[in-house]
Amino acid sequence: MPRRRKGQPVSGWIVLDKPAGMTSTQAVATVRRLFDARKAGHAGTLDPLATGILPIALGEATKTVPHVVDARKRYRFTVRWGSATDTDDAEGRAVATSDVRPERGAIERALHGFEGEIEQVPPRFSAIKVEGERAYDLARAGERVDLAPRSVTVYRLELEATPDRERAEILMECGKGAYVRSLARDLAEALGTCGHVEKLRRIAVGPFREEAAISLESLTSLGHSAAASRHLLPVETALADIPALALTEAEASRLRSGQSVGLLRRSDLNRIGTLEDGALVCATADGRLVAIARYESGEVKPVRVMHL
Q: Under a CB-based contact definition with an 8 Å cutoff, are residues 126 and 136 in contact?
């Protein structure tokens, strides 16, 4: 007798406003339990110290996670000058101090040097794997962790405020893989001092914004109710930047079975529009998402089939 799958076939996105003090894994587990969902995952880890946007995918939405992970992200964070920590944030222990407190003009000039494509060494306390082990596990065990620099893209850095001589509040828009903690560490070094992230909040991830977010406290209070389900965004929300392609039901059936669909007739030209060869599309039928597909040489080929 086949084993019954645990949980309900719930699919969609919850834009969680993660509280401080909770890991991203703990947040996903809590949301999954609240919705009794079979599958769940998140689109980009937030440190326990951090608050803000943690997009959580349930069910078929987990198939769209890579598209959100690759999207731009925006953070608002506070750097505290004069103290470096082993974690590069306020949760670590101090490893160096400095009496230098940079002026506002110097901070603004230094920020420009960190825009564009830059080389960045991730924090020792990060989830990056080193010979199969997480870097933070090795660091906690007191082992030496040497992480290679990686290229990341920073689209925007803006000094928003300097509330006092000890702190600077900064807005950052970046691409995949950029670490705010590393940027704060390196910025302080460029200014001739040391520093760490005191506060960190993520305010946007791809198409997900603060106005669509719900706190874990509010979501928990709603429990298993229709009100909670109203905060569940459609799976295709994550694919807002991918063009939609309407299919007939017969064509949709072919995609669902893993077969390609030919669109070479003159009547197909309006549907194809200006699609470039190799472009990803959201294949739909009767307004429902059928698959993430690729248009190649006059054919639409399934990449990830949805069961909605």
A: yes
Q: What is the mean pLDDT of residues 187-196?
A: 98
The pLDDT score that the predictor gives to residue 1 is 45
pLDDT at residue 227 is higher than 90: no
Return mean pLDDT, the chain. 90
Of the two residues 131 and 197, the one the predictor is more confident about is 197
Do residues 67 and 123 both lie within one domain? Answer: no
Same domain, 89 and 30: no
200 in a domain, yes or no? no
47 carries an active-site annotation: yes
Helix intervals (H) in 82-199: 104-112, 135-140, 180-190
Tokens of 131: 């010979």
Cβ contact 29:225 at 8 Å: no
Amino acid at 238: A
The CATH number of whichever domain residue 220 belongs to comes to 3.30.2350.10
Highest mean pLDDT among 82-91, 137-146, 224-233: 82-91
3 has pLDDT over 70: no
Residues 141 and 224 in one domain: no
Identify whether residues 111 and 173 lie together within a single domain.
yes
CATH number at residue 288: 2.30.130.10
Question: Which listed residue (47, 88, 89, 186) is catalytic?
Answer: 47
- Residue 95 falls inside a structural domain: yes
Phi, psi dihedral angles at 200 (to 5 degrees): -150, 130
**Per-position b or e across 62-84, b if 16+ CB within 10 A of its CB:** bbbbebbbebebbbbbbbbbbbb
- Segments forming the whole domain that contains residue 133: 77-186
Q: Are strands 12-18 and 214-215 parallel, antiparallel or unpaired?
A: parallel
How many domains are contained in the chain? 3
CA distance 247 to 258: 15
Q: How far from chain centre, in Å, is Cα 226?
A: 27
